[in-house]
Give the backbone structure.
Amino acid sequence: MGIDKPSKAYSLLKGYVDFCFRNFYKVTFLRQETMNPNTRAIFAPNHQNALMDPLAVLSAFKWQPVFLARSDIFANKTVAKILRFLKLLPVYRIRDGFDQLAHNAESFRQTFDVLDNNHPLTILPEGNHEGKKRLRTLKKGFARIAFSYRHENRNKNDISIIPVGLNYFNYHKPGSPLLIRFGNPIPVSAFDAHFRESPAIATNALLKTLGEELRRNMLHISEDADYDVIDTYVSMYASMALQQKMGLPEIFDRQKEIIEQLESMEKEEPAQFSKVKDATGRILELLQSQRLAVDDAGLAFMKDNNLKIFSGFVLLILSFPLYAFAWIQNLIPTLVLHNLLAKFKDPHFKSSVLLVGTIFLFPVFHGLQTLAFWLISGSWQWSLLYLASLPLSFVWKYYWQSWFSNLQKRRRLFPIKGKVKRMVEELVLL
């Protein structure tokens, strides 16, 4: 069976993963309704957040796209079978060894079969991830695949490239917003004249067009700009705008304007940019003095008082027995998950490990705990009730901890709330 053939098992797994992903982030799609997922196309997202990026694209439609991934993750035969079930095909690079490049012929043949069947591909054209609001150099291998299908395939079929802008408000924080913007389709046939002149010219032209369209649909801070200052500014603005109930598309548009204005200011008005840099630094220092992060600045714009915070803590105390039960029931998978997290040196795998670990570890341990409960109690009725309580306890544990964390932040912010609000408002006016 071809890798693009629909699979009921895959569909069930995807439904579960999509549900978990959309509960990890608050996902908003823009121009999703204009896209046809069942077409001869390559979806090309920016790549900032490890495994979360392909999962973000996957969650957009009821579809089963084929992904291209680097070959080294296919080294183990058992893992390779799992990856094929997940509809991943290997792509070999020069760093894998010149002798390995010949294997690309089989991957490309399967890729062409997928596209011939009007089935989409997903390729991350940056190759690897970097946790910054910035589009990096696009890899030429992506364009070679598109042109090979267009010009070396006997049917000479056209193919479209679909740019996908992934915009995370916080890469690792569960419950944070994620805006996914679909750009204008780019027909590969538009570069036929370039290709007749030279494949290299066509490749550069396609990558330039794709880069422009991706930057239009994502937050992009130029390499020659002061990244930390601009990133801090737009993050503070987003935090404030979210508290003021502004929509994600409007926040995104304003963030794009801010980035453009600050980059221009840095070049043309360095003295004014220095004031912005000093102001963002002072706000950040003030927040850090209370163990708060940059995206906590928006809490200063929340209508709050000591009575609300106190009543929140009272409710937490009253509900603590339920939390204690939930904490105990989920202790073992939580410890295993934290141990897994410690093994990853790249911090931008944090959200990926959290999500994937939660998706698979907790159901397995909940099943084992239920089996142990049944062996001890001998009652299948009570065992079923216990099993039903476990996912509910996990959800309650998550929301109780989020509630507690939010109240703690509001309590720590309270002594400096007025000052932070005033400083952020003054910063926006600079």
